[in-house]
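User: Could you go from structure to sequence for me? I need the amino acid at each position, not a summary. Structure tokens:
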């Protein structure tokens, strides 16, 4: 039978956590580089008749502490009986390793009090108010059993059940007067109350159900054996409510704990493409069904790339436990593996293959900003410096930097490894045709062949025309001079002859 309401259950849970034996706090919790410890010389369950005298040692300076005494006789009780802002004595000493520690001592005088009590020491300088506790029995009455988690129990952890049976272990303090209650009981026994409710998200979604379980008590160790098949407890997340009663019907505090029953592996289906192109993003989604709400699982991803290299995935490629996204930068088959492990340790392996095809480069050759097509005739000026550039060629990001450019002039190799051709690169004078071939790292190629014609500049043509006409004009002028001179000289010579003839005649 369950006791109290939900608020009392929460309170009992807090009390249960305070019933921990002397605790060792690691450095991460205390925000310090050393391990903090505060230990009691006494053990849990010690009995005091009136004056409570406790002592211990500490690796922490105890100049700022609070020590309190709480009455927790009833399972829902948490009453402050006494408190002090300092310990009675604190004495430093040096250990064999040269480290300073402190011995401490304190007393509470409660002669008239009888209770099941908790002594608590809090380190006030710690931002998370680190506390250390000791459960004691004071006086002769009002004593009840106390259930405690194991000292190394993680409050946030879940008990995982991947097999048929599971054993839950706790500490159990029995009242000092238990044997005197019934002298015939040589080995005092207790009655166990064990109830569970389905709690997939940390809160009960249905009523508690009482279960019959086997328990074993040895000294202060209390063990419960749970056979999940016998009690017909299916896979799921549960909240346990556990307490014990002595034969005198003294009830202990309740312990609240999460229980995960998980015997069966999850069902996993894969959703992803089977074909893709280079530099595209491949996303793999897993649909994981573990058979119950609130199940938790983890996935370990690995990838075998087309060249056979096995690699782990990066943190940026994991979008969630059930989603992987990466860029395929190689041609071939990618093998994607996922190992899905659930709360109970059951696992499933999946494999998915994606065939990635190469994207061929697109050759873009230009002259003066104009695109050159295959078999095109390009006219250049004979006296100008020109450049044919393929810098605007496109390909996938993984191939663009490794493209191979090869230039040919009239079928003969000219140069390679460069995406442009300058007029100064061609040393011959008589040539007509240029070919550019392009190849990516996967062997895909393309090419452009075009013819080049030289155009005479307008200044040269004008000068040549001017020179021709000048020569012709000079020829005409010279011809005219020669003709005129002949005309002038010929009459003079004729007259002279005639004069000579006349004189001869007269004679």
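Assistant: Here is the amino acid at each position, in order:
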């Amino acid at each position: 039978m369950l006791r109290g309401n939900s608020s009392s259950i929460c309170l009992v849970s807090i009390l249960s956590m305070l019933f921990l034996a002397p605790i060792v706090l690691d450095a991460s919790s205390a925000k310090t580089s050393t391990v903090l410890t505060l230990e009691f010389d006494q053990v849990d369950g010690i009995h005091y008749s009136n004056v409570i005298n406790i002592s211990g040692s500490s690796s922490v300076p105890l100049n700022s502490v609070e020590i309190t005494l709480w009455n927790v006789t009833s399972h829902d009780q948490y009453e402050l009986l006494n408190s002090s802002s300092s310990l009675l004595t604190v004495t430093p000493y040096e250990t064999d390793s040269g480290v300073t520690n402190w011995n401490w001592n304190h007393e509470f005088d409660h002669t008239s009090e009888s209770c099941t009590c908790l002594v608590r020491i809090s380190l006030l300088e710690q931002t998370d108010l680190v506390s250390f506790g000791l459960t004691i029995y004071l006086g002769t009455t009002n004593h009840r059993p106390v259930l405690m988690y194991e000292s190394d129990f993680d409050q946030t952890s879940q008990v995982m059940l991947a097999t048929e049976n599971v054993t839950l272990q706790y500490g159990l303090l029995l009242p000092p007067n238990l044997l005197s209650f019934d002298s015939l009981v040589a080995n005092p026994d207790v009655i166990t109350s064990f109830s569970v409710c389905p709690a997939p998200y940390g809160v009960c979604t249905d009523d508690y159900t009482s279960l019959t379980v086997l328990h074993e008590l040895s000294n202060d160790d209390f063990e419960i054996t749970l056979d999940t098949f016998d009690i017909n407890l299916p896979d799921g997340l549960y909240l346990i409510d556990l307490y014990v009663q002595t034969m005198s019907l003294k009830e202990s505090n309740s312990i609240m704990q999460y229980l995960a029953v998980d015997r069966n592996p999850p069902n996993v289906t894969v959703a992803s493409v089977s074909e893709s192109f280079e530099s595209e993003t491949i996303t793999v989604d897993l649909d994981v069904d573990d058979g119950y709400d609130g199940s938790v699982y983890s996935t370990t991803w690995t990838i075998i790339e087309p060249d056979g290299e096995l690699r782990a995935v990066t943190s940026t490629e994991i979008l969630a436990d059930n989603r992987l996204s990466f860029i395929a930068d190689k041609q071939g088959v990618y093998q994607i593996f996922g190992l899905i492990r659930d709360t109970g340790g059951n696992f499933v392996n999946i494999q998915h293959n994606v065939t990635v095809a190469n994207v061929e480069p697109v050759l873009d050759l230009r002259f003066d900003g104009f695109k050159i097509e295959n078999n095109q005739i390009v006219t250049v000026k004979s006296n100008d410096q020109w450049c044919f550039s393929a810098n605007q060629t496109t390909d996938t990001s993984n191939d663009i930097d490794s493209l191979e450019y090869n230039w040919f002039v009239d079928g003969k190799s000219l140069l390679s490894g460069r995406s442009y051709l300058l007029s100064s690169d061609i040393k011959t004078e008589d040539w007509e045709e240029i070919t550019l071939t392009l190849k990516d790292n996967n062997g895909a190629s393309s090419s452009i062949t075009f013819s080049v014609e030289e155009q005479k500049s307008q200044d040269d043509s004008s000068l040549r025309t001017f020179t021709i006409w000048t020569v012709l004009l000079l020829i005409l002028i010279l011809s005219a001079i020669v003709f005129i001179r002949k005309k002038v000289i010929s009459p003079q010579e004729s007259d002279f002859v005639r004069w000579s003839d006349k004189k001869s005649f007269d004679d």
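One structural detail worth keeping in mind: The helical segments are 6-18, 27-30, 178-181, 458-506.
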